[in-house]
Every structure is written in C-alpha cells, then in structure tokens.
Amino acid sequence: MRKKYLILAFVFLFILSFFISLGNGAVKISAREIAKAILAEENNVNRQVIWNVRLPRTIMAGLVGICLSLSGAILQGVMRNPLAGPNIIGVSAGGGLAALILLVLFPELYYLVPGGAFVGSLLATLFIYILAWKDGALPTRLILAGVAVSSLLNAGINALMTFYPDRVAGVISFMVGGLSAITWIQVKMILPYVSIGIILVLLLPTKLNVLMLGDEIATGLGLNVERTRFIFIILSSLLAGAAVSAVGLLGFVGLMVPHIARLFIGSDYRYLFLGSIFLGGTVVMLCDTMARVLFAPMEIPVGIIMSALGAPFFLLLLRRKEKI
C-alpha cells in the first residue's frame, strides 16, 4: 500500500508540474486564466500562448522525461549497473548522430528522424554490449566501452558541424538539449514511438525483475535470458531515440530519475517503471520551467539545468558506489 500511495503522490506532482509549466514563462498566466484559455473558445493572447507555445512544449517535456527515465531504468536493470544511463554509455549519442545525419544531409526526410534516432541508439547499444562481452558483460567493461563509443559518436557529430557549418544553425540547442522550438508537429512525430515504447515496457516488468536476479537464476526459472535482454535493449533504444530526436542530447535524466524513484519505491520494476514515468515527466517539466524563468525574458536550454543538477548527482552516486 505504501508503494501505491507513493505512486499517487508522483501522479499529483506530475499534474502540478504540468500546470506550473503552463503558467510560467516570459508571460505569467494564472491557473484560472489557463483554464479559460483551454476551455473557452475566445481567441485572446493567453489562449494563443497556451495552445501554440506552452502546451506542446510542456507535453513534449513530459514525454521526453518519461522516455529517458524509462530508458535509464531499463539499462540499469539489464546491465545491473547503477551508473548506466542513455547519455552516460553512448545510447543518446548514437541517436543524436543518426538524427543529425538526417537533419543535416537529408533535411527533406525530417519525418524519419524519430525512426533514425531509434536505429542509431539501438546500434550504439548493441555495439557497446558486444565490445563489453567476454564471458559475460561486467559493469565496469560496459561503462568503459560506453564512454569509448560515446566519444567516437561525438566525434562524428563534431565532424558534421565542421563540414556543414551552414546547415547546423540549430545544432547548439540540439547538442545541449532544448525545448524552445517545440511545436505540435514534433509532438505528433514522436507520440507513436513513445506510446508503443511505454505500453511494451509496462507489459514486461516481471521479466526484468527475474533478469535482475542474475543470468543463472533467471535461466533456472525458465527465462530466455539473451532474448529478454535483447528485447529490453530494443525498448530502451526506442525510448532514448524518440527523446533525442525531439530535444537533442539531454543528459542525466535517465541516470537521476530511476535512482530517485528507487530510493522511494524500491527495486521492484512493477512499481519502479510507474514511478519513473511520473517522476521523469515531473523533473523535465520543472527544469524546463526553470530554464524559462531564471533569466527571463531570456531562455536557456533545459539541458544546462539538467547538467547542473545531474553532474553533482553522478559524482555523489560514484562516491557512494566506491564506499559500498
């Protein structure tokens, strides 16, 4: 019952963050005015701001937070490594490179960016896993292989920026992770990928619980370990790729949120997935709101806020792991 109440608390925080994000920015809008703008038919400035600017941006922030937090939770479970995350081990960089190749070299195929980012994330994850495999994939090898692959992929991103400087006007926001130019078009583009990923993940928490017990025990319980691991890698790549295609290389969400959720809920993925969904959306929506209001009327990319919070969290987690 305690876990269920905590999930309800996360749902409440998610809804509260949604309305905080809608109401704050260069133009502050009260809760009453938000309700009128959403429900009323009158065409005024507040309605235009809510419907055309803040609502798609807030929805995208929630979706991205959900995708990255679920991707991080899956990677930490599959790799049995608390330091695993989409941006740490190069999954996001793989999706980012694929998305940039489409946007820079084939801009007419922009509608394929979510699918391309998924393929890039998947290939990066599989490459990391293959490099780290030697009678099993030890956590240390996975992290080291991920760092190496991430550096290689970032070199590819930098090469694109160098050879095509006239086509990468918006690449700075993409590299940091930003939500400033989000419209309903981007929301509709990634929504099918996000929906499929979330539904499939919520159908498989028990299998990840068994996989967390170790390969030998999981095999003894009748689980096809390699097939299950491969399915979760695909789902993690799908979610990370969808997020990267929308907002760029937004870091630390997939590392931070599953750990925070685990502190409250525990390691049972039946509840951890739900907690990561609502907490991930909450964190990104609040951070995006901070990015809009801290230096208003000027905005900063939400990735700067996430990095400022995530880097100390990563170091704290690293020191805690060393002590253990």
Automatic annotation (TrEMBL):
Its main location: membrane. InterPro entries: ABC_BtuC-like (IPR037294), ABC_transptr_permease_BtuC (IPR000522). GO terms for cellular component: plasma membrane. Pfam families: FecCD. One of its GO terms (molecular function) is transmembrane transporter activity. The chain crosses the membrane at residues 55-75, 87-106, 112-130, 142-161, 167-185, 190-210, 230-257, 269-294, 300-318. The keyword Transport applies. GO terms for biological process: siderophore-iron import into cell. It is found in: Cell membrane. Keywords: Cell membrane, Membrane, Transmembrane, Transmembrane helix, Transport. It is a multi-pass membrane protein. Belongs to the binding-protein-dependent transport system permease family. FecCD subfamily. This is Iron-dicitrate ABC transporter (Permease). It comes from [Clostridium] ultunense Esp.
